[in-house]
């Protein structure tokens, strides 16, 4: 990461986060969560920095980031749509809802629309099982989603 790049301020902030957790056992996960909360994603260019700062291998850092689906490697869209694919939601139409969302948005789960308006993600339980199929749009959990209701909520989220 070059010091004159926009990432220089991110690198400085990451060093401060590492310093705040230095000496903690298992510091990597809390640091990654803080990075994601602050920047919206974990930039892959931070892997070498985190590895050096935490005395870990790059492979270890990369492995943790890619293992946990909550960590994104790029910015999310203006609307973050997370659809539940756990068994309770599957039994009431979650797979059809996911397929509909992919078709309408023209992307697959894990992708962001080319215009940056919507990121579509999957989760495996939102704790809203009795009201499935469930989803989360910009941090707000929604139940009994239908294709039409999901589309309306996505439009509302993009324009709010």
TrEMBL record:
It comes from the Bacteria. The keyword Disulfide bond does not apply. [2Fe-2S] cluster binds at residues 84, 89, 125, 129. GO terms for molecular function: 2 iron, 2 sulfur cluster binding; metal ion binding; oxidoreductase activity. NCBIfam families: PRK05988.1. Keywords: 2Fe-2S, Iron, Iron-sulfur, Metal-binding. It comes from Micromonospora deserti. The lineage of its organism: Bacteria, Bacillati, Actinomycetota, Actinomycetes, Micromonosporales. This is Formate dehydrogenase subunit gamma. Gene3D superfamilies: Glutaredoxin, NADH-quinone oxidoreductase subunit E. Its cofactor is [2Fe-2S] cluster. Belongs to the complex I 24 kDa subunit family. Binds 1 [2Fe-2S] cluster.
